[in-house]
Amino acid sequence: MEKHIIDLDAWLQLPAGQYVKRWEENLFDQLTPDIFGYHALQVGLPQIDALRASRMPHRWIAQEEAERSFGNPRVAVLHDFAEFPFASQSLDLVVLPHVLEFAEEPHQILREVERILIPEGRVIISGFNRASLWGMRQATDRLRKRYYLPKEGEFISPARLRDWMKLLNMEVSATHFGCYAPPFRSEKWLQRYQFTEKAGTRWWPVFGAVYVMEAVKRVRGMHLIGPAWKKQRARRAQAVPAVNQVNKQTHE
Where in this chain does the record put each Methyltransferase type domain (predicted)? Predict the structure, then answer.
């Protein structure tokens, strides 16, 4: 069971939350159309539509029972995120918006993601950056019990997350940072500091309040040799390719 994902739900309705939501959805809109395949899954936070620009024909959102329902027909309600009801090697893309930092067992969630992804499948993860002005304010606010970000989050640094991914043979291909405005509470002041997006990207890129990490599932020893592959296809002309079997299981 997730800790207090509902706290994050309420926070996303605040000015700072709306700021983060806009930035992340715009970035997801840039990343997902170029990832090809048939099956994509977003885990948690249906109020951030990470797959709205994806071209994949089959897209789902996995939501926990504790989260608020949005009446979306694509939403599948799960008991928890530690075990997904998908066959191994059946999905092309999995997106985790702010899920790991609010999870009781983030490592188990990543293991499940690795299990359900096909070889060369993609995962995209977003999180709050501890090494930012927002992260510094959160650390200070803990002493005063007056939090700027959701208080239950255990924020994971990009370097630490990269190490976790490496252990699962997930190769990080890119990490994007954003939301460089200072941690103001009012919409007016956040808007006034919108110029920091371009400045931050250029001058202090790794200190954005939010990061989005892309990774690819690598399978060691998996090589396709042209002539041998052609001979095998000739001998098995009537066989059903394994990828079609996986897709058929997913449809069922």
Answer: 71-125
